[in-house]
């Protein structure tokens, strides 16, 4: 038996699978996010521990016999979060999350070096990444900066708590701006941009490599029969890709979730910093991936449905009927989907959404259509940004809440001029991905084709 843990922003999800990748049980526990100021987003790492233990108890109560036979655990987590640890292993301050935008100025300072930061890291410095957060802490919370013994990503702090070991893996480490993504190793030059050294970093491994064993007190607490090892795991999108079987260069997926993501693996290192494309290592050895990210996708639809007091289901029905009238579509307003800033291709946390060409005849359905259209063109921007450096992908799979709309899938397919397939994926996709990594570490055959 194997466990996959997905440490998300809003909840911890956990999955129990057997050696044939059958899902035996699932569990989840909610988390909270603190926003002490506008643009600030933080989380208390203690919540991660409490939620993880609650999920363990949930699986145990559902399948006690199978739960006791656990062999290994994989962990996925939301990327970029800065979790500061002192010499005693204690958390210094709340974790600054991926969607925190306070370090915009520090991004400019981070890149103002005597060498080309972007060519070495493969990425643009963005407030979401880990490094600018540390530069902000040094500038405004220097007393905390001086206490730093290790900087850990969220899932790697959870790993440390469970095992006592300091490890990270390539996909998550790629989002720090301290990794030489091409060479898959920490960069002394990039670390120096944040006034850090390699001693402040966890040891790097691949996603399916062992990183330690569960502490005896937790083994006893949950009555595991075996010594339970913990593997490297993955950042959230790489984990989700592995859960869907997206591991080869001819594959890709579009996620129409709260944010919009286009993800495609590559067999070698590629980069397009000019369009703010994310260039990361995959969680499997000798694989990389490119990713475009728009910060507001189905979130825009949620917003306009709230404003117009219409359900999502009715809005999509209205939009589909509206789309059938070519004259109406040609006279529809335009929507820029930047409600929370944007990454690919603009890299601007301050840009905001807007409607254009609104008339006295504009009604709720017109606005709903404009939102669907605007988000879809935002996805197209991301795909086109990746096409500038890579066109190996043939199969595009659709996931996320927006993929449940056949109209939206058809609209996107026409816009991209590509065939799109809806992937059978649940909210536990990332947890399944890292459960598979845990499984492969135990010499079982890794097969993903049956999920697509």
Protein architecture, described:
By secondary structure, the chain is α/β, with parallel strands linked by helices. It has a domain at 2-239: Nucleotidyltransferase, domain 5 (2-Layer Sandwich). It has helices at 45-62, 64-68, 104-111, 117-121, 130-140, 142-145, 154-163, 170-173, 188-192, 216-221, 236-244, 298-307, 312-323, 326-330, 364-387, 406-416, 429-440, and strands at residues 2-7, 11-17, 23-30, 42-43, 72-77, 83-85, 95-96, 150-152, 167-169, 179-180, 185-186, 203-205, 210-213, 229-231, 234-235, 251-256, 260-266, 278-281, 288-294, 334-336, 354-356, 395-399, 420-422. The strands form 7 sheets. Strands 1, 2, 3, 5, 13, 14 and 15 form a 7-stranded mixed sheet that branches. It has a 6-stranded mixed sheet with strand order 18-19-17-16-22-23, with helices on both faces. A two-stranded antiparallel ribbon has the order 4-7. Mean pLDDT is 93; it is low at 445-452.
